[in-house]
From TrEMBL:
Pfam families: FeeM. It comes from the Bacteria. This is Acetyltransferase. Residues 51-199 form the N-acyl amino acid synthase FeeM catalytic core domain. Gene3D superfamilies: 3.40.630.30. The keyword Transferase applies. It comes from Novosphingobium piscinae.
Amino acid sequence: MEHPLSKLARRFRSISDVGLHTFDLPDREDASVEKTITVRLADVEGERNTATALIKRKYSSRGYGAHHKVPNRSNAVTFTASTNGNLIGTLSLTVDSPLGLACDKTFKAELDAYRAVPGAKLCELTRFAFDTSRPSLHLLASLFHIIFIYGTHHYNCTDLFIEVAARHRRFYQAMLGFKPAAEPRVNDAVGVTSHLMVLKVADIRRMIDEHKRDPKAAGHSLYVYFFSRQEELGIYQRLASPLAEPAAHSRWRHGARPSGAAEDPAVPGWRRRRELRRNRPVLHTSPA
């Protein structure tokens, strides 16, 4: 039987050229200039090869080796972010199946304990790389939010895992709410100590809503940069109707609203976002 992810990949192939979502963000060097960012599914060989080239370049520069590739199997889907036709970031989502997860190589016993919980369905984020060591928080939030929308509407996972190097643990814990799921352990594939972290998918929805209601109390959280409810609805409609023409809200300026849409008072302004951006950490995941 064909895996559900394979069916979804075929279904969304028709929107690969225009992307899952397109939005504008201020340039890091000049906030008065905006860059158009497009998030796509890397569902054809050429897109996966481009993403793999980025992963190899960034991972090898960190001493992780250059043998890593974007997953190309039925239980994984890869997302890319690009501007002006140039790839700037990639991140893959893998859903648990008989093929297992990448984290199983180092933390199988811990993952099996989660699998044993009735109703549990595991997924993981892997192959995370950006063409800069300090990607914009707006860009990171946009990519994570689109993956959350995609995943929750189609896969019904309960637990999201990520395997990271020690120096990146605090970022995922403070900015996204991940929690330690195991004692640190050496990842034999790259020879570095890895941390397994978990985030309840139900908590993602709660944290998005809480931070949108009161962004001033959010602290240094990535959730304050997530899309508004109107933007989220627009993205979901794009996913649900891939053959339709792009809706007006598929080209929103991040944090803005299209003509006729209800205003979201919880979206913070650029000034506050720039202030938080000063303290962002260097970001890379372990190449699980």
